[in-house]
Amino acid sequence: MKKKIIILLIILAAFLFVGKVKAEETNTCPSTLLTELRSEAANVKVTYVTGEEMVTIDEDPELGASKLRKHYVYIKIFNLNNKMAVRVTPKGDGITADEKVFTSNQVDADGVITLKQEAISANVEYQFTVYSVYGACSGTTLRTMKLTVPKFNMYSELDICSDVPDYYLCLQYTNYNIDSSTVYDKINEYKATLAKENVDEENKNGTNNAVSKAMSGISKYKYLIVGLIVAVGVVITVIIVKGKKRA
Dihedral through CA 47, CA 51, CA 55, CA 57, nearest 10? Predict the structure, then answer.
């Protein structure tokens, strides 16, 4: 009896296993379709642009609205079609934002999906996982991408940076870790270096201008000078000839 039960259990397990394998085969993503989807996913691009907005922070009936200028980073996702979706996962020190999933339903009139992030003083590492939502390949990862959004540099907003915005410590966004204890000294040193270079350049230009003016004056009267030289030469020649005749 026990042997019959064991045999029945083995047969039942075999049928269940075969059924599972067939089900898996039915749900397998065909290689031709997967290749096609990956080719389409290769067109998906990500980038970011920076900008700012005036945000209302307080509304007073008598004084009116109080507004504050805030900086934002706009993450752009291009060429996502209706066969795929993208999972966006932000990572970084102190980053607590949850991952989000975007589909072609979020594509705007320009064919772009835009994710707005407030500018913060920390780098944000974004991972984009593009996966299929089409047919038997639904759920299959097609490609992954990464994008680093640099940190906002608060020193770029200060007066000390107003006249040197291209200096690396004054750039609005940077990956550089700025030492607050030395940043003012370094910016002032850079300004002093620029001032010295400008003075040297002005002196050089002044010298060059003096030489240029002298040469210009010579060029202006060159025919008169040549004429005088020729006249002097003629006079000298005449004197020499007369001297020889007397001799």
Answer: 90
**Helical segments of the chain, H only:** 2-27, 31-41, 183-220, 222-246
**How far is C-alpha 226 from the chain's CA centre?**
62
C-alpha distances (whole Å) from 136 to each of 27, 42, 102 are 6, 20, 20
Q: Is the pTM here over 0.70, yes or no?
A: no
Distance separating the N- and C-terminal Cα atoms of the chain: 160
pLDDT digit string (tens) for the chain, length 247 residues:
555 555 555 555 554 444 443 433 345 899 999 999 999 999 999 999 999 998 887 766 666 667 888 999 999 999 999 999 999 999 988 787 789 999 999 999 999 999 999 999 999 999 999 999 999 999 999 999 999 999 999 999 999 999 999 999 999 999 989 999 999 999 999 999 999 988 867 676 665 565 566 566 555 555 555 566 655 555 555 555 455 555 5
Length reported for the chain = 247
Contact between residue 143 and residue 41 where contact means Cβ atoms under 8 Å apart: yes
Amino acid at the residue 96: T
